[in-house]
UniProtKB/TrEMBL annotation, chain A:
HAMAP family: CTU2. GO terms for cellular component: cytosol. InterPro entries: CTU2, Rossmann-like_a/b/a_fold. GO terms for biological process: protein urmylation; tRNA wobble position uridine thiolation. The gene is LOC113694870. This is Cytoplasmic tRNA 2-thiolation protein 2. It comes from Coffea arabica.
From TrEMBL, chain B:
It comes from the Eukaryota. CDD domains: CTU1-like (cd01713). The lineage of its organism: Eukaryota, Viridiplantae, Streptophyta, Embryophyta, Tracheophyta. PANTHER family: ATPASES OF THE PP SUPERFAMILY-RELATED, CYTOPLASMIC TRNA 2-THIOLATION PROTEIN 1. This is Cytoplasmic tRNA 2-thiolation protein 1.
Length: 490, 356
């Protein structure tokens, strides 16, 4: 029922229990001296425990420790709401760190996100989320390396880690000097995260085109200019970013792509998708695993709030690099400010949004594809029993939007056959979801055909596969009863 | 009024894009097309006719009650429905059904509007009041519980009141003026508040088919702005003030957001509804089991219907009963009821004695 109280417990206004008791890798020892720990500073009528970490009750909570310094605004305000200590800052620094890392580790282990034979490419934007993702995956790798060095039989290999930064300077104007400085800072960050050594790739968006860079840059510029809608242009850039990541991962032998997408970002995405009519495909984008792509994409920071990640960066002085003002416009900007407003009014709003969306049924590609080696995966497979998602063999395969790769609702897809392998304007439209049709594809037919000619090969191929897929599937169903290879029976 | 901003003086020679004969007089909020008034009336009415036909909302010979508050949505609904009923021979018997919540200075004024509608559209009117049904007016309730959670009481009571009124009128169906903006707001609200069960039901155009009175929303795809525009140009008589007790409702957040969204991309409202319809929600999600209220017989998934629970709270001076995570409320009530069996409580009043 409607209410606007921050503490209301009616209906769906759940206040998130932030005392998530995750497997604590560093359990605090019981207080050695009982008397000292009972000395609690009284603070003007408030709960006398407020100065101490609510978890270990030994060290000072971060809110108390920083209350006098100017760093408090950074720690307690972080990326979230206004005044007042957040739940996170009622931990001490160590407990906070272990709690946050615990969330990361739980996500990785219970969803089998990273296996020992993997080579993981971390998508690094320079911002706090991807910085923490990089840090945590590095720590995990170091731990695996230590175990490897200490083990006698060296049976479990250590997974590899690489870092990729997508250079979007051809689409977003960034002063060249600022840009090269930022890249150097990132290179330094990555080189400091060794051993084990991590390769740093700087990939430009235009690299998705196989032709030489100049031609690619112009093609990219033309492609983006052909999109009239501001939000459509922004979203197209995001889709191209993923294509660039896929390309560099494939080229360099990576087996997984790791994104630092956090709860807050997902909450915004939920609303963005709802508002753009993408309710059907929403569930595909917000799970831990997204295996629609050639290289599966994993989101281990899915349960961490942006505010927590900001606090983590300032707590451990993790260097973040701002390449360009992440300036959203149009609908995406409206939603970002809306979620910020809601989060200020109720600090658990982002989590509630993600939890609601988490109840939507995922797709069959939202679990890790079965590897060849069955033995190692059994435990995690048991844990994935929640959604019994095998692709239903009695239905035609899912088809995907050419541009955003979102699964298309069967009733929205008009079945069509390619006439002589030439795409008509209608064919081009039909291969895209309704949202992309509206906000990305040009309305005018000749502009549409021109736009199609500018698309990178991966998007063109994706559409053609979808179109032929159903035909091929139908044929496979009846293959054993066909007497000839051609349709007319000759 | 809002509609005035949208009517811009077209440059000389700008014709309506639909008929190409008359001068364009307005920009259509849903599509931004520049059209004349006559064409606007036509597309507005015919789109609603299309929704009614495509979704098979009515059958010939049905008695249909229109939930009439005197506001723009229900006034336009009454006007358009009686017009389409005539024009396309739906064969419906239409009635106006109004609920008097007992809000001085708001409801008594809007009820006057409905009484005028009764005469203007020639539709028989029935008014049901909270006072008669429950023994409480909203004024009295707000005096007791304040301005938080009062919308909960009113909403629950109104739903039942409409059903009871519909039964008294012996109608087969109830129509309400919920428009596209309302439904989009509800979709957003349910996402924000974690209500996955409601999220799966809130985009249905017809609800309650398995209950006492099915209800439908012919305005599901009609923009609020267009309803205002229609009412303005047709000079329909309606009452346009916000309920005086509602300023704090959480829905306000969603409403503001949708207004901003509409400015950037008008079709987003319909896109939200489409997303709501397309959400993949497992049908095995626990849906409430349907039974009947022990106290009054109304449809309920718990021992007592929500209205009875709330009423009990009011009568016993426990305004929080039924608000919040009411794990124990129903159990507590039945326990206490058993204890107080023999005692006749003068204060406590039944929900109503109608058998369902």
């Amino acid at each position: 029922m409607a209410c606007n109280s921050a503490t209301c417990q009616s209906g769906g206004c759940y206040r998130e229990d932030n005392g998530d008791r995750v497997d604590d890798p560093f359990p605090q020892p019981p207080p050695a001296v009982a008397t000292e720990s009972t000395q609690q500073p009284l603070s003007n009528g408030k709960n006398s425990d407020s100065a101490f970490c609510i978890k270990c009750k030994l060290k000072e909570s971060m809110a108390a420790a920083f209350s006098s310094s100017s760093a408090s605004a950074q720690v307690t305000g972080g990326g979230g709401g206004g005044g007042g200590a957040s739940d996170s800052s009622r931990f001490c620094g160590d407990c906070f760190r272990s709690n946050l890392y615990g969330k990361f580790r739980l996500a990785v282990t219970s969803n089998a996100l990273i296996s020992p034979s993997d080579n993981v490419l971390v998508a690094f934007s320079g911002g706090p989320s991807s910085r923490v993702a990089l840090q945590f995956v590095h720590e995990m790798q170091m731990k695996a390396q230590k175990n490897f060095d200490a083990s006698r039989d060296r049976s479990l290999p250590v997974f590899g880690v690489g870092v990729a930064f997508i250079d979007e300077s051809s689409s977003i104007s960034i002063p060249a000097e600022k840009f090269s400085q930022a890249v150097e800072e990132m290179r330094l960050v990555v080189s400091n995260l060794a051993p084990p050594v991590k390769e740093f790739h700087v990939v430009s968006t235009e690299s998705i085109y196989s032709s030489d860079s100049n031609n690619g840059r112009n093609r990219l510029k033309d492609l983006l200019n052909a999109v009239a809608d501001v939000t459509g242009k922004e979203d197209l850039l995001v889709h191209l970013r993923m294509l660039a990541l896929q390309k560099v991962a494939l080229k360099n032998g990576y087996t997984k792509i790791l994104l630092g997408t956090c709860t807050s970002r997902i909450a915004c995405h939920v609303l963005e998708a709802t508002v753009k009519g993408q309710g059907y495909s929403l569930a595909a984008d917000i799970q831990y695993v997204d295996a629609r792509w050639e290289i599966p994409v994993i989101l281990p920071l899915r349960d961490c709030l942006a505010q927590e990640l900001n606090i983590m960066c300032s707590l451990d002085s993790l260097k973040t690099v701002e390449v360009h003002n992440d300036h959203h416009s149009g609908i995406n900007a409206l939603i970002t400010s809306f979620v910020k407003l809601l989060q200020e009014e109720n600090p658990s709003r982002e989590s509630t949004i993600v939890r609601t969306a988490g109840k939507l049924t995922p797709f069959h590609f939202n679990r890790m594809p079965e590897p060849d080696d069955c033995n190692m995966q059994l435990a995690s497979q048991r844990r994935q029993k929640k959604y019994n998602l095998k692709p239903n063999e009695s239905l035609p395969p899912e088809s995907f939007c050419r541009i955003c790769n979102s699964p298309l609702k069967k009733s929205d897809v008009k079945s069509y056959k390619l006439e002589n392998q030439i795409m008509s304007a209608e064919d081009i439209s039909n291969g895209c979801c309704t949202s992309c049709q509206f906000q990305i594809l040009p309305k005018d037919i000749s502009l549409l055909e021109h736009f199609y000619s500018l698309l990178p090969q991966q998007m063109v191929a994706r559409g053609e596969y979808s179109c032929l897929g159903e035909d091929r599937w139908l044929r496979e169903q009846i293959q054993d009863c066909l007497l000839s290879d051609t349709e007319d029976g000759t | 009024m809002e509609a005035e901003e949208v009517v811009a003086k077209p440059p000389k020679g700008r014709f309506c894009t639909i008929c190409n004969q008359r001068r364009a007089a307005l920009k259509r909020p849903k599509t931004l097309e520049q059209i004349c008034r006559e064409c606007f009336y036509a597309v507005f009415e015919e789109e609603i006719h299309g929704v009614i036909v495509d979704n098979q909302l009515f059958k010939p010979g049905e008695r249909v009650a229109i939930g009439a508050s005197g506001g723009k949505d229900s006034t336009v609904l009454a006007y358009v429905l009686s017009e389409l009923n005539r024009r396309h021979n739906y064969g419906l018997d239409l009635f106006l059904l109004s609920v008097d919540e007992g809000i001085t200075g708001y409801r008594d004024d809007s009820l006057e509007t409905v009484k005028r509608n009764e005469i203007q559209y020639g539709l028989p009117l029935k008014v049901v009041s909270y006072k008669d049904l429950y023994g409480w007016t909203m004024d009295e309730i707000v005096k007791l519980i304040g301005l938080k959670n009062n919308c909960t009481f009113c909403g629950v009571f109104r739903r039942q009141a409409l059903d009871r009124g519909a039964t008294l009128l012996k109608v087969d169906k109830l129509v309400t003026g919920h428009n596209a903006d309302d439904i989009a707001e509800t979709v957003l609200l349910n996402i924000l508040r974690g209500d996955i069960a409601r999220l799966s039901r809130c985009t249905s155009i017809t609800t309650g088919e398995d209950g006492p009175i099915p209800r439908c929303k012919p305005f599901k795809y009609t923009y609020e702005k267009e309803i205002v525009m229609y009412a303005y140009f047709k000079r329909l008589d309606y009452f346009s003030t916000e309920c005086i007790y509602s300023p704090n409702a959480y829905r306000g957040f969603a409403r503001e957001f949708i207004k901003d969204l509409e400015r950037i991309r008008p079709r987003a409202i319909l896109d939200i509804i489409k997303s709501g319809e397309d959400f993949r929600i497992s049908t095995s999600t626990k849906m409430p089991e349907q039974g009947n209220c022990e106290r009054c017989g109304y449809i309920s998934s718990q021992k007592w219907c929500k209205a009875c629970v709330l009423l009990e709270g009011l009568n016993r001076g426990l305004p929080k009963l039924g608000i919040g995570r009411s794990r124990g409320a129903n159990n507590e009530l039945s326990k206490n009821a058993k204890e107080a069996k023999g005692i006749d409580s003068i204060q406590s009043k039944q929900c109503g004695t109608l058998d369902f």
